[in-house]
Design brief:
By secondary structure, this protein is mainly alpha-helical. It contains six helices and no strands. The C terminus is likely disordered.
Amino acid sequence: MKRELRGVRVVAAMEAAKGIVVLLAGFGVVELLHYGIEPVIDELVRHTHLNFASRYPRIFLDLLEDLSDQRLWGLAALAFGYASMRFIEAYGLWRERRWAEWFAVASGGLYIPFELYELAKGLSWLKLATLAINLAVVGYMSYALWLTIRSGGQRASSSLR
């Protein structure tokens, strides 16, 4: 396997991993529908030893109490849709599909303005790292796409298609 293909497959694996994480979160939301939100809040209080009478924990508690079954189903549906999108992208990248390269560039580039906005609100290492990783992925996928287009649709380093 050539270096270029390995890099695209690393991006594919990252996208699949994001899909798995969001899918697990979606299952967690569905699980809340079966057990209700109160046991989750009680467990959270027990494990974190937070004082929910103070300002910030109270905001979180109010948010959790305002969740209805309909909103939870909506959140679960969004999570499953997003995870499906990440899995489709990962599959396309793994199988060296040009549409997946375009999609990777577009979907990664979509986050950059939001990441820059968050950085403008306040600097942190997490925000900088997120932006740097996203810029690296978008840059690399743009390069891979350029190589694919330049070679007439076939990846120059791969005879598989």
